[in-house]
């Protein structure tokens, strides 16, 4: 039998395997996903460092050749998007429309966007005003490990691999143990695109594999997306090993502030989509909504009506008209249902909509709305990472800025108003990496994305990401002799 090339490229000499299940029905998808162990990680890092050697094909590639490679890879992602989405969907549960297509679109867009940067990020020069001519070169770091979560497995690859490779690094992807299938398929596309061996590798595994990469002495950087707890652990491992560079994209509990003068339908549309896309399992989902007094009742009524209208698009993610699938797995389902029932039992707020599990099989949860929540309550303060929102009333601008900022998170916020001066004022006052005005829970390729406070460290996307994958080297040329 002739094996497909990617099957012989996986590191499978370890004896541990992960099992993955379909969250739409609870059935086993595979119990054969390899966990890369110490030997595997060492081998991948060794091969990556060889691929990064100064005289390697990768380092000798011209800008145009590297651009063509990234663009070809983007084309391959596009051509294979339905297959890639399906491989994610059978373990994540998100339907192709709107989430599957959009997360793959993010990955494709990242490779195209960063291909355009390849010949435009060389560095700077400064004149020999003092007799010394100065060159500042943006040099690649070396081996970059991308450790990604399950909720946007391919988008995360685009956000990390594209800028890493555009700046000349070599990249090792460690997908989440919950959604590993698409990443294994990516290996095949890497070969088809023609990346030199060792430039773009995939190591499946769980947290232990991630920890091996984060603590490896020959890995120069780890770009991590995931929970705050793991992000902190990754930073400790990085510091305790070789002080490798770290980018952290962590959690959020993003506030949306809706003023009395907001365009009501627009505010409802953005907020409801933010909660229902990928069943609320999005780091920058608007899950803490504040509405000014006069608009509050109408907003709440409209928000709930919009959720009710979506009730018939929740279901089997394989069906064409379904837009909202299950949450990722049983542990996530149990955690979210536990938070909902404790909030109800402890009177943490008024349950206005949802709150129940749906269907006989799989891990479906109704979009759930709590209003009038207690400020210190878990449902109000903590990231739930599911289809659960808290909606509260506010009185005036100074009060709402303080409340919006009273959080350990700072990933995204949104302000909904038709008063441009107020919108700009609030955008300065809120403490978050991204602020949407009359929109929320969205990103742009050309702009930095990332969080303040415990939502993260560093930025992805835009030119800022290039900075985090390069080290400036200053070359001083003495002309005075
Ligand atoms: P997680 O922290 O459990 O896992 C993320 C990744 O880290 C996985 O690949 C996992 O195998 C790996 N890992 C686990 N332990 C490790 C260790 N000790 N060392 C190194 N790697 C380790 O997160 P998750 O449950 O997969 O994802 C959900 C979280 O991700 C949420 O908090 C969400 O807000 C966050 N998230 C943030 C962003 C962002 O851009 N800010 C985007 C998506 C998700």
TrEMBL record:
Residues the record marks as active site: 249
Enzymatic reactions: an aldehyde + NAD(+) + H2O = a carboxylate + NADH + 2 H(+)
InterPro entries according to UniProt: Ald_DH/histidinol_DH (IPR016161), Ald_DH_C (IPR016163), Ald_DH_CS_GLU (IPR029510), Ald_DH_N (IPR016162), Aldehyde_DH_dom (IPR015590)
Enzyme class: oxidoreductase
PROSITE patterns found in the cross-reference section: ALDEHYDE_DEHYDR_GLU
Record keywords: Oxidoreductase
Gene3D superfamilies: Aldehyde Dehydrogenase, Chain A, domain 1, Aldehyde Dehydrogenase, Chain A, domain 2
Domain of life: Eukaryota
SUPFAM superfamilies, per database record: ALDH-like
Gene Ontology MF annotations: aldehyde dehydrogenase (NAD+) activity
Aldehyde dehydrogenase domain sequence ranges: 15-475
EC number: 1.2.1.3
Pfam families documented for this protein: Aldedh (PF00171)
Family: Belongs to the aldehyde dehydrogenase family.
Protein name: aldehyde dehydrogenase (NAD(+))
Species the sequence originates in: Aaosphaeria arxii CBS 175.79
Origin organism lineage: Eukaryota, Fungi, Dikarya, Ascomycota, Pezizomycotina
């Amino acid at each position: 039998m002739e094996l497909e090339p990617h099957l012989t490229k996986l590191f499978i000499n370890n004896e541990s395997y992960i099992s993955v299940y379909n969250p739409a029905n609870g059935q086993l998808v595979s119990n054969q996903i390899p966990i890369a162990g110490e030997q595997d990680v060492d081998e991948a890092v060794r091969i990556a460092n060889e691929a990064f050697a100064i005289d390697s094909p990768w380092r000798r590639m011209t800008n145009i050749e590297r651009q063509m490679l990234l663009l070809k890879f983007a084309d391959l992602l596009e051509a294979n998007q339905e297959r890639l989405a399906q491989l994610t969907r059978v373990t994540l549960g998100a339907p192709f429309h709107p989430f599957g297509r959009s997360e793959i679109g993010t990955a494709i867009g990242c490779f195209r966007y960063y291909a355009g940067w390849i010949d435009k990020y060389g560095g700077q020069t400064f004149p020999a005003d003092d007799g010394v001519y100065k060159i500042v070169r943006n040099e690649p770091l070396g081996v970059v490990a991308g450790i990604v979560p399950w909720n946007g497995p391919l988008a995360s690859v685009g956000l990390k691999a594209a800028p890493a490779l555009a700046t000349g690094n070599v990249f090792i992807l460690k997908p989440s143990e919950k959604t590993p299938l698409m990443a294994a398929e990516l290996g095949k596309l890497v070969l088809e695109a023609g990346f030199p061996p060792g430039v773009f590798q995939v190591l499946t595994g769980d947290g232990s594999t991630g920890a091996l990469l984060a603590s490896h002495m020959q890995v120069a950087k780890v770009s991590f997306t995931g929970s705050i707890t793991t992000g902190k652990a990754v930073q400790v491992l990085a510091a305790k090993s070789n002080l490798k560079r770290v980018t952290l994209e962590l959690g959020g509990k993003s506030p949306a502030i809706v003023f009395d003068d907001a365009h009501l339908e627009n505010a409802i549309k953005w907020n409801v989509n933010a909660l229902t896309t990928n069943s609320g399992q999005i780091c920058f989902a608007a899950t803490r909504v504040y509405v000014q007094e006069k608009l509050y009742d109408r907003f709440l009524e409209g928000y709930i009506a919009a959720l009710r209208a979506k009730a018939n698009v929740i279901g089997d993610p394989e069906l064409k008209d379904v837009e909202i699938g299950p949450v990722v797995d049983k542990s996530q389902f149990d955690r979210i249902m536990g938070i909902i029932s404790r909030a109800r039992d402890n009177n943490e707020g008024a349950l206005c909509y949802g709150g129940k599990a749906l269907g006989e099989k799989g891990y479906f949860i109704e979009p759930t709305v709590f209003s009038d929540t207690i400020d210190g309550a878990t449902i109000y303060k903590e990231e739930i990472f599911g289809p659960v929102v808290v909606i509260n009333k506010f009185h005036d601008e100074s009060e709402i800025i303080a409340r919006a900022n009273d959080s350990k998170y700072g990933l995204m916020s949104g302000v909904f108003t038709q008063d441009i001066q107020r919108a700009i004022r609030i955008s300065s006052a809120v403490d978050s990496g991204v602020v949407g005005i009359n929109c929320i829970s969205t990103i742009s390729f050309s702009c930095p994305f990332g969080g303040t406070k415990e939502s993260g460290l560093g930025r992805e996307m835009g030119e800022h990401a290039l900075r985090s994958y390069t080290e400036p080297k200053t070359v001083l040329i003495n002309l005075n002799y």
